[in-house]
């Protein structure tokens, strides 16, 4: 069942019913100011950091859900309705929500009154624009009211929802004409405030929530809207809001447009009011200048056109044209769009991440680079250096950091032993894309302390050696607190029978080992060797090669279970992910990474592992993380078995590592199987089961309930997931096979045998490559010939051109 359709020409998903199974959202903003907006106008805004600089409130567990946002109430006679349906939930005569690239448009009507609301964040500005156009489609003059409404957050979102004894006394606002200023805590220590304004004279306003809603009122029927009369309230403590009242009269066929602006304004320190001024007023200079930039419909539409141009250019760096419409749709639009959003947000702010707890993840952000680096390499470079600055001197790292301060999150700390290797992965992706080795010379701190800084190359060396220096009894890498699967905590012990289990601290010598990290070490260690050689560090390169070779041998000796790779060993050297186990006999993670690392490829281990995945982990909705699920709680395994069977890490379909298997299938040359794995979780290919899947049909979710769950096929945690980067990497670099490398662009497709071929355009190091791939023999993998600008070349790597900006490449598979 569908609740909308793809409009590829406009790069939109059009939702045709407001009653989607869950709120289906979009992200506005791509730099510093961001808003989340749902298909019913729910959501919230923040500047840079969703925890520390939250402009508007959102209640995640509210009932009914998604019932706080940026709303416009239209009152005509006794009828009250909203362009996005919520929160009044009035039946509309027509409704559409168009989620596009960085904007959302709502088109709805009631009683021949049409509303079109477009919300977007202009390029380079710290504000959200809401352009509301009202049209009278009747034969009579219409007189009605429009009431805007936002509820301000008191900046720190965590404090806002917990510290009521203080916060109920801090709210402050100013109103000047059609502009409402939220200045809570401005008098204390801040030089910023929020602005909410409209480009027209108002017939009233409200800034106090209780006055607007009424005693025991609800936002579905605010007292002010029902009475059609604002109270001109000025908030003093309690809950500040922003509401404008506009009385509108439209002749038959007439339209009027209003432009609303919600902004973050920060004054320079020298302009800051420090709390001693006699009137206590804020400095409005910058706010008034910003309002002038968007005070007409023409200016607003020009900014929207600039935003669309920005996304058109950004998404033009990699495009594909094939007989598979859904493939083209995902590669050209939605894959890359989600990669951009996930790069900006990490795992911070979504409808499943509150924006309070996680900030930016070390491993998360490094993985996100894999799908983003070709879009804006300069920002990828900056992000890599920010990530590295949270590393410790021994090569370990803070697991998370806050985007505003760029400092590590001490509440979470370190000890996730896969983290250091992801820095090598992200750096290698950047260098392969750009050829920019100067990043290795950047002076980069440890623990965000400028006094502790070395060349960035030294950070990579310490990342690599951290694994070498932390090996367990089998000479496999120690898992630490956890590896990629943070719910698999294996360093547990009990001092006496019957006592509760405890976790080893770092000084107590935990011995649990990870085969998954071993696969990472081999795969990304090879990139470390290449980087060392480019720097002339031959001794270090040879040391790394020897360590990698030894690790490969160790994995085959101690990490192979006969038909698949083991997952781990716990502290007591018990196998995890083995046929010897009662539950959790086989895990997805080591199969993906050990095969991607080509461990045992010649010996046949890789193919056996892929066959075992297909035999034991495959389902119609994707590959589950493990089988069988843990049917009882295993305290010695940590959190993984706390989930019911089929959910999250306990045998859920983790979309994040499904592309690992798809990539691994390309390693063994099975293009049909790689394609099958890719399409089973790909949004465009599962749009028809939206009533089962429930989350947005245009972006990936982190998790789908596995075959052991009552709600098999139901997704959760959409948008902010490493799935975005990994699936784009999978389809672009391994299935389509257009892969950047240190010495050029490699073309090595591994496609379904039914595909005749495809055309692609790829911008790479200042050159646009026009690539034509033909598959006349309908093979799954193999390049029979390649010509570059009409000249045959050996192999399948395109030599770096000199003095050219356009290159034509012809590839024949066979």
TrEMBL record:
Q: Where is the Glycosyl hydrolase 94 supersandwich domain?
A: 11-294
One function term, GO molecular function aspect = glycosyltransferase activity
Q: Does the keyword Ion transport apply?
A: no
Residue ranges of the Glycosyl hydrolase 94 catalytic domain?
A: 310-737
Record keywords, A-Z: Glycosyltransferase, Transferase
Q: Report the InterPro entries cross-referenced here.
A: 6-hairpin_glycosidase_sf, 6hp_glycosidase-like_sf, Gal_mutarotase_sf_dom, GH65_N, GH94_catalytic, GH94_Enzymes, GH94N_CBP, Glyco_hydrolase_94_b-supersand
Instruction: Look up keyword Glycosyltransferase and say if it applies.
Output: yes
Xref: Pfam families: GH94_b-supersand (PF06165), Glyco_hydro_94 (PF17167)
In Gene Ontology terms, what is a biological process of this protein? Answer: carbohydrate metabolic process
Name of the featured protein: Glycosyl transferase family protein
| Classification of source organism | Bacteria, Bacillati, Bacillota, Clostridia, Lachnospirales
